[in-house]
Amino acid sequence: MKKIISAFFMMAALSVNAQEVSVNKVEANQDTTISIKKGSSVEPKRKYSIVEGNHDLAGDKDVVAKSAEKNWKAACTEWKKEFREDNKDNKIISIVCGSMKCEKEGVETTCRSLAKYKIKTLAEE
C-alpha cells in the first residue's frame, strides 16, 4: 500500500512540473524549424550598415623605379595589415590597394594609388 501511495505522489509531482506545447497548422512543404524558448526575452536582430572609404597610398621615393614599385607594394601590405588590426569588431567586406601609378619627381620615382575599402558596421539601434 505504501508503494502505491508513494507512486501516486511521484506521478503527481511529475505532472505538476510538466508544461505543454502544441503546434498546429505548420506548413511543412519547405524546411521548417520550430524553436521553443522559456521566458519572454526575444533578442532583437542586429542591423548593419555598409561603410565605404578611400585612402591615399604612397610608397617611399627611390631613384630606381623597380625599388619604388617594391616600396609601394610594401606600403600596400602594411596598410592592409593595419586596417585589419584596427577593424577587429567590424566585418571587412573588401579591401583593395588600387592601381599603382608611378611618377618621376626629379631623379626619384614615387608610386601611388587610391586604396578603397568596404566594411560592415553595426548600426545604432
Could you outline the blueprint of secondary structure elements for this entry?
Elements: H1 2-17, E1 48-58, H2 65-86, E2 91-96, E3 101-105, E4 108-122
Antiparallel strand pairs: 1-4, 2-4, 3-4
Briefly summarize what is shown.
By secondary structure, the chain is an alpha+beta fold. The protein is 30% helix and 30% strand.
- Unreliable runs: none
Beta percentage is 25-35%
What is the top-level CATH class of the domain at 48-122? Alpha Beta
Percent of residues in helices comes to: 25-40%
Summarize model confidence as the mean pLDDT: 80
Largest sheet: 4 strands, antiparallel
Category from helices, strands and their pairing: alpha+beta
Q: List the total number of helices.
A: 2
CATH architecture title of the domain at 48-122: 2-Layer Sandwich
Question: Span from first to last CA?
Answer: 64 Å
Number of strands: 4
Global morphology: rod-shaped
Give Rg in angstroms: 32 Å
Any idea of the CATH topology of the domain at 48-122?
Dodecin subunit-like
> What is the N-to-C order of secondary-structure elements (H for helix, E for strand)?
HEHEEE
